[in-house]
Amino acid sequence: MASVTGATQGTPAFVANFPAACIAAATAESISNGGLWNLPTNSNAKSGVTASTVGYNGLSQLANIGCYAVGGSAIVAPAQGTYGTMTWDQLRTGGFTQLNTSVTKDWKVKERLTAQFRFEIFNLFNRTQYAGVGVNLGAPSTFGKAAFTPDVGSGAAVTGSGGPRAMQLGLKLLF
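^ thats the sequence. predicted structure below, dont judge the formating
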């Protein structure tokens, strides 16, 4: 979304066309840290430096970077010079759980010759395992989505790393 032209940067009017959830979250960022990052009200700021010149408040950051909003929830970049309120790895998915199994049978043909038959199943319950979600705010179409399995995401479709159920038979001669 573009900012409103003619309005002062760092003010609610400048970002009036953004979703209400984004404006509310950015406003909360503007008054974080006791208002120290809201330069118009900070008496310690250098003279001539305003929120619009350096982007120190959340509304200015909203105009520069944008936000991600779904329903009434929003993720906005923190005001410049602050850490924000999201915790480390907050956008992580559930762990990787997959059950693989195998059945083997050995037959002794002669004293030094053994035949081993194997039946292996990877992803026994055929559960879809998605890779991590997209965390690039600059790509809103993929942000927050897990669109591929770990094997496809790594570029090497390997049996047993998140793909669909796979079964294989094997016969090995040991001598």
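The two ends are 70 Å apart (CA to CA).
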